[in-house]
Write a structure and sequence with these properties.
11 helices; single chain; about 20% strand; 11-stranded mixed β-sheet; 13 strands; about 400 residues; globular; alpha/beta; Peroxisomal Thiolase, Chain A, domain 1
Length: about 400
């Protein structure tokens, strides 16, 4: 059972690139930014901030789940509904008690908590009907399970920016342990003032647009979205081939400049997947655009792969989706590896082209770059979090 592969049967996704697989794939492959908004309502002093915001209305939860209703929940439901047909097929086959849920998040509905706090600060009373479940970090797993009336294991992972990558690894563990026959795995996070002001306080928020791996980089750009997979044992086009994790515990907020933990996670994912470095066709980088993260991740990738591996970070086009970032990166890999991307396009890296010694400048994907016709379509996806929580996933065709 342990070595049985975990196939990623279907994907539901929403981000500033669009709603649904096709819209996100097309946005991902364009050599320019799409959906980035300039907002003046998120930073405490009213300064502008660029964010990857999802546009348009979001679905509300049914009345029976009103206590969980939040922007975060709406993003999650939107992603779940895209894979409704696949879910119904799994339900018919396995039953509600044999489908598990593992979600990753770092904000949950904190935005609604902020609004309630501001009202209480003015009036002394919380808004009528406000429910703390909206902002509890464990809520996304509960929301998905209760929305779909699933009765298998359901929980939420919150390890900062590696949360949803860890959720995929944990979902595979449930399958291998025989605790479920199918698992909903992924992540969701939404914009909130707490996150943006926190990153700014750490001098980690970009003053303009995020510029990963440039010598001019000055911080990251926050985004929002959801990416959810249906994971099963049954053969499908794309599989979770391997997973590796580490915790370097160097600092609560700063990455280890020696990159030892990231190297460990990447090597563990390769070993778990039975891959050599030369088997990998592309790396979806964590690539936040902060000075320390980009330098550290460059060091790790160059140590294992040298300068020949195509790489790209999506943070410059969707922002850092925090707890959803790992699943979002995995989703980008899924889309690029799938038959939806028949031409073998690679997602171009969005930056100003200002290379710096020691960074991955020579590896970054340019507009129009494609996989070789002989490529197996095996990708790595990095998610590197506060506290030194590092997860690497290997995703692609078997």
């Amino acid at each position: 059972m342990r070595d049985h592969p975990a196939f990623l049967t279907d994907l539901g996704i929403v981000s500033c690139l669009g709603r649904g697989k096709q819209a996100v794939l097309e946005g991902l492959m364009k050599p320019e930014r799409h959906g980035i908004a300039r907002r003046e309502d998120l930073l405490a002093d009213g300064a502008p901030a660029y964010v990857g915001a999802v546009s348009g209305d979001l679905p509300a939860l049914p009345a029976r789940l009103a206590g969980y209703d939040s922007r975060n929940a709406g993003l999650l439901i939107l992603a779940l509904e895209e894979i409704r047909d696949s879910l119904e097929a799994a339900l018919s086959r396995f039953g509600r008690q044999r489908i598990a849920v593992v979600m990753g998040t770092s904000t949950s509905g904190i935005s609604e908590g902020e609004a309630a706090y501001f009202q209480a600060a003015k009036s002394g009373v919380l808004p009528e009907g406000f429910d703390m479940r909206r902002q509890e970090l464990g809520s996304p797993g509960e929301i998905a399970a209760r929305y779909l009336d699933l009765t298998g294991p359901a929980f939420t992972v919150s390890t900062a920016c590696s949360s949803s990558s860890q959720a995929l690894a944990d979902g595979r563990r449930l399958l291998r342990a025989g605790l479920a026959d199918a698992v909903l795995v992924g992540g969701v996070d939404s914009l909130c003032r707490l996150t943006l002001n926190g990153f700014r306080a750490l001098s980690a928020l970009s003053r303009g647009l995020c510029n990963p791996f440039s010598r001019h980089r000055d911080g990251t750009m926050i985004g929002e979205g959801a990416a959810v997979f249906l994971m099963q044992r049954d053969e499908a086009e794309i599989a979770l081939l391997g997973a590796g994790a580490s915790c370097d515990a160097y600092s609560m907020t700063a990455p280890d400049p020696e990159a030892g933990g990231v190297v460990m996670a990447m090597k563990a994912a390769l070993k778990d997947a039975g891959l050599a470095a030369e088997d990998v066709d592309f790396i979806e980088l964590h690539g936040t655009g902060t000075e320390q993260n980009d330098a550290m991740e460059s060091r790790a990738v160059l140590e294992i792969f040298g300068k020949a591996i195509p790489c790209s970070s999506s943070k410059g086009r969707v922002g850092h989706t925090l707890g959803a970032a790992g699943a979002m990166g995995a989703a980008h890999c899924w889309l690029a590896a799938s038959s939806m991307n028949e031409e073998g396009r690679l997602p171009p890296h969005i930056w100003d082209g200002a290379a710096a010694e020691g960074l991955l400048s020579e590896c970054l994907v340019n507009a129009g770059d494609r996989l070789a016709p002989s490529a197996r379509r095996v990708f790595l996806c990095n998610a590197l979090a506060f506290g030194g929580n590092n997860v690497t996933l290997a995703i692609g065709r078997r």
